Amino acid sequence: MLKLDYHPSGRHFLQIPGPSPVPDRILRAMSLPTIDHRGPEFGALGLELLGKLKKVFKTEGPVVIYPASGTGAWEAALSNTLSPGDRVLMFETGHFATLWHKMARRLQLEPEFIGLPGYEGWRRGVQADMIEARLREDGAHEIQAVCVVHNETSTGVTSDIAAVRRAMDAAGHPALLLVDTISGLASADYRHDEWGVDVTISGSQKGLMLPPGISFNALSEKAIEASRHNRMPKSFWAWDEILEANRNGYWPYTPSTNLLYGLNEALDMLLEEGLDHVFARHQRWAAGVRTAVAAWGLDVQCLDPDVYSPVLTGVVMPDGIDADAVRKIIYERFDLSLGMGLGKAKGKMFRIGHLGDCNDLTLIATLGGCEAGMQLSGVPLAGSGVTAGLEYFAQHPLDAR
Ligand SMILES: *Cc1c(COP(=O)(O)O)cnc(C)c1O
């Protein structure tokens, strides 16, 4: 919110790539009275939503829910499958991959961080051939897990997870595959079982359109087997007691009841619309936003069109312009929040989220705030991104059903 001594009129434009705007239908579902988490009604709700959740992860296996942000689910994935001193191979796609790597070190793992060099390395996705080459060198199979970020939220790059699985298979390497799709799930196509992922990590406040506060691990049989023997201390995060209680729709401790009401509603909304339609909707929004960026004469952060993110777009500022100063003007003048450049991208770009409770016209308004804010900041623009974006949406009706 703007710092005013009165309540600003209209809705704040929350166009960061998570938390995303929450649909009213979900907020209303969450406003119902909190119930007894050991009572019969609760078990029915738990079973219903755990079943629907599998469809969104595209898995037949269990999905564990934590009352924690996505970072907790990262820790859960590592601490349930690995042991202190284990080697893990992580790929540096951007700031979130970097944070996960830092966590692995704090948990006394021995992560190896590979990637393309420098800031430019953050403008492309996971290079499956580099993973394959490294795994082929590891003839003794010391590497216990490969960790990659599906949708790198700091840059707007959605990596090809099926290609990572193919690379691991081609190298004949038995490592587990751990994938962070905290910001990808329910906006970008994702297939836990088909892609042979062992642990998928996700969160509530991005594509699932919920407020922050719950997060997920989807598990393969192989991951569950690893959790029975691994030696990293785990208690709150341990899958075994949660899976046991989940059989009847309960949790071993007090779950986030009202967020689970919201999750149940979000799952209904996604499944009613159909996941393919949801993905096509985000792809189209992303294409419209990229059309606007091109009309401004600016570059998007992602340099490889095959991995443009459907969830968010990074807009690179010309040399000599501080992207954070531009964002500040946009926020103060137009009540519009954009994502900041993180880590190596700090000050170089801003990020437009196109996920959650959006539509064509809220995105056009977002582009309007960006355009006017850049003009006020002295960013030289080649033309109107608002006009180009509107034309794109008008000429490309969404009809993927
Ligand atoms: C948001 C995000 C995280 C961190 O999740 P929190 O809920 O903030 O803990 C991790 N990875 C990615 C890719 C994200 O987008």
UniProtKB/TrEMBL annotation:
Entry annotated with the keyword Kinase: no
Cofactor: pyridoxal 5'-phosphate
Protein residues bound to substrate: R351
Single GO MF descriptor: L-serine-pyruvate transaminase activity
Residues with PTM N6-(pyridoxal phosphate)lysine: K206
GO biological process, one term: glycine biosynthetic process, by transamination of glyoxylate
Record keywords: Aminotransferase, Pyridoxal phosphate, Transferase
Aminotransferase class V domain mapped to chain residues: 53-291
KW Lipid metabolism (keyword) present: no
Family: Belongs to the class-V pyridoxal-phosphate-dependent aminotransferase family.
Name of the protein this chain belongs to: Aminotransferase class V-fold PLP-dependent enzyme
